[in-house]
Design goal:
The chain is an alpha+beta fold. It has helices at 7-26, 150-167, 173-188, and strands spanning 31-34, 38-45, 54-58, 62-67, 74-77, 88-94, 107-115. A hairpin with a 6-residue loop joins strand 4 (62-67) and strand 5.
């Protein structure tokens, strides 16, 4: 007979999974972050190279980043599609890191911004060949309802209303709609007995 893990066991297992995930991610030749709507990748590259030395290809479902004539640093299928016209890459020179100015080689990074097609989806990885992260553990940043487009905002407000109604033991907006339809039907058909009617 299997028993569910205690909170302590679950916490330990979560901590082990998080440590393994962080180790896998730290071995990647790039760093990445995401919001629900977009994804940003930072790829460290040699400081002596210029933009024309790189081969960066952004397509709807693929990403390729590398130095021309060398194996790509990042190459693979994206887990979900992007808006190519809204996605960009730039080569950025980082400020010298504390060494004497004379011997400090400039270091550079390629910053890549991917605009997700689906603005309601977390990505488990940048490319499908990379190790996955547990998207169920992502805590989204706080955002204002006013930042959302009309349709998304309406959907979120309805979900928030329904959640509050459930917490108070009251009917959701869908249940309220059904009850309103039943009330109207009762008014139109006073001859019918609705005393044993059940809502389901």
């Amino acid at each position: 007979m299997s028993t569910s893990p205690t909170p302590e066991e679950r916490e330990k297992k979560d901590a082990e999974a998080k440590a393994r995930e962080e180790e896998e991610q730290s071995k990647l030749p790039y760093k990445w972050t995401q919001t629900i709507g977009d994804l940003d990748i930072t790829v460290p590259v040699p400081g002596n190279l210029k933009g024309k030395d790189f081969n960066v290809v952004l397509s709807k479902t693929k990403l390729k980043v590398g130095v021309k004539g060398q194996e790509p640093i990042l190459d693979g299928d994206l887990p979900h599609s992007i808006h190519v016209d809204e996605s960009t890459w730039t080569l950025t020179t980082l400020p010298p890191s504390g060494k004497s100015a004379a011997d400090a080689q400039p270091s550079k990074v390629i910053d890549i911004h991917l605009d997700k097609s689906n603005k309601m989806e977390w990505w488990p990885h940048v490319v499908t060949s990379a190790p996955k992260i547990d998207t169920s553990k992502i805590t989204p940043e706080n955002s204002k309802l006013s930042d959302l487009d009309g349709e998304t905002r309406g959907m979120v407000e309805k979900m928030m209303y329904d959640q509050r109604q459930k917490e108070m033991g009251k009917p959701t907006s869908e249940e309220e709609g059904k009850m309103e339809m039943l009330r109207k039907f009762q008014q139109q058909h006073p001859e019918m007995d609705f005393s044993k009617a059940k809502m389901g």
